[in-house]
Amino acid sequence: MKKKLVAGLAMGLMVVGMAGVASATLINTGTVEYAGAARKLIYDTDLDITWLDYTKGATIWDNQVAWAAGLSFTIDGVTYDDWRLPSAGASPTWGYNVTSSEMGHLFYDELGMQSYPDKGGDTTTAELNSSPYFDNLIASWYWSGTEYAGNSNNAWNFNTNNGNQNNNNKNNNNYGLAVFSGQVSAAPVPEPATMLLFGTGLAGLAGVSIRRKKK
Fold it and tell me: Which residues share a beta bridge with 74?
């Protein structure tokens, strides 16, 4: 009985490790002090961008653009001041399940959320913050930094409540989320294969234990 339990545990850990490497491309890279609290830095290894886990209160597009551009953090003597709103992609499109934008990639590919039609309901704020990464997302409309080519008065936005990407008048009030092109780290960053190695190592130790008991 004990042999089966140890072997099953080892295999489970190894599978979890492999699944983590295959699907999780977000890495917490430390925190920075902002707006009176420690805010997480979340690095996306897929897109080579770093998210700041802070939602700026809803306001017009120009204000959100200026807010993101004005962010600056100095870590270990290095200043990171090229923050911006997320991009809607090179050729933005309307609708659900759009993953070519940075917000769409985060919502669908990284956080594993579903669109309103696929889920049959809205995504809640609690669901958005249920991963180990974000704590401060809000289920609502967020501005992107990409203007709408068909109308200079509009800009693209993304709804984390239902997974819809659209464009809207810049004078409407939407939330803001800041992103940095590249990696911002305030702590040692684990290698992507760490979980796999950990699981494999435990599986090996379990195998050794079982073989010893057989002797």
Answer: 79
Cα–Cα distances in angstroms (integers) from residue 96 to residues 41, 80, 145, 189, 214, in the given order: 27, 33, 19, 33, 56
Per-residue pLDDT for the chain (215 aa), expressed as one digit of tens each? Answer: 444 433 443 344 333 343 333 345 999 999 999 999 999 999 999 999 999 999 999 999 999 999 999 999 999 999 999 999 999 999 999 999 999 999 999 999 999 999 999 999 999 999 999 999 999 999 999 999 999 999 999 999 999 999 999 999 999 999 999 999 999 998 655 554 444 444 444 445 445 444 444 45
Return the DSSP state at 72: -
E-state strands within 125-211:
141-147, 154-159, 164-169, 174-181
Distance from chain centroid for Cα 96: 18
Which of 29, 120, 147, 115 shows the shortest CA–CA distance to 80? Answer: 29
Give start and end residues of each alpha helix (H) in 24-82. Answer: 61-69
